[in-house]
Amino acid sequence: MVAQIDTDSPALRLRDLRKTYDNGVQALKGVSLEVAPGDFFALLGPNGAGKSTLIGIVSSLVNLSEGQVQVFGSDLVAARSATMRLIGLVPQEINFNLFEKPFDILVNYAGFYGVPRAEAEARAEEELKRAHLWNKAQMMSRTLSGGMKRRLMIARAMMTRPRLLILDEPTAGVDIEIRRDMWKTLQEINAAGTTIILTTHYLEEAEQLCRNLAIINHGRIVEQGPMRTLLAKLDVEGFLLDIDGELPAQLPRIEGAQLAAIDSHTLDLDMPRAMDLNRVFDALGGAGIRVRSMRTKSNRLEELFVRLTGNLAQEAA
Ligand SMILES: Nc1ncnc2c1ncn2[C@@H]1O[C@H](COP(=O)(O)OP(=O)(O)OP(=O)(O)O)[C@@H](O)[C@H]1O
Ligand SMILES: [Mg+2]
Questions:
Q1: Domain count, the chain
Q2: What percent of the chain has pLDDT over 90?
Q3: Mean pLDDT of 30-34
Q4: How far apart are CA 207 and CA 157, in angstroms?
């Protein structure tokens, strides 16, 4: 069956995707998601959230249990090979032959996908140049640095000219310089028109690169939307206030801020960053509430992530 490539369709559409592994683990519990053509999209989530399962399904490494996957309108189950041809995958682990040369790795990969030799060689040159690896084309891959090896993985995935590039934790465990370097490469690829989806533990990475994101936890999407909207939502400061004595039954209302009692002598306060703290203290004082001490809650994406997943973002370490 020929893929129905439809330029109006989302680059990726998941409908109620479910995956139960043979051992009974429910890795995905009904995930629905749309990624627009041209988007740079992050799938964020803690260990075991289901990110690799989701990506494995989309790239046909894992069979889905229920639900639907469409790539540019082409159904993964009904038109598997045609759909797969639209996708380039960069797995987390380096999995090329270290005793092959970058040029050969790329040409052979394209050959495997049916790209004619001459065309494959032309593409290999183009991709190696884009990855700033042209001067390494004829060296043993083993001798490349960690960052170069990762760029080679991306170059290889680009050999089939995918419309959707999917990367599973492309920068896990690499140092910040390599990470920045890869961000640049990915931004160039995205600017040239390829839709990109990546999974990451690194909140900073999602913030730097992605226009839209979904946060996944325990096999469900817990938050989804534009990065900017999410960050705006987070443009609040959170404090915990320790109160002298007992809180009154009725808390004062403070315009623009949110106040909640955690227990009889602790208040949870969320307020816009720009708001004057004195207003809060005045209102509290007026209601007979005396603040003994206050602490900030952690902030921004970190905070949201923790709030949504109940999981410290410490995997990033
Ligand atoms: N082949 C498998 N067989 C059985 N269970 C699996 C298999 N692969 C993953 N799981 C389970 O499915 C759940 C989701 O795993 P998955 O690898 O998709 O998470 P992840 O979000 O990629 O995590 P990480 O950030 O650690 O890579 C986990 O509970 C995991 O143990
Ligand atoms: Mg994973």
A1: 2
A2: 61
A3: 96
A4: 24
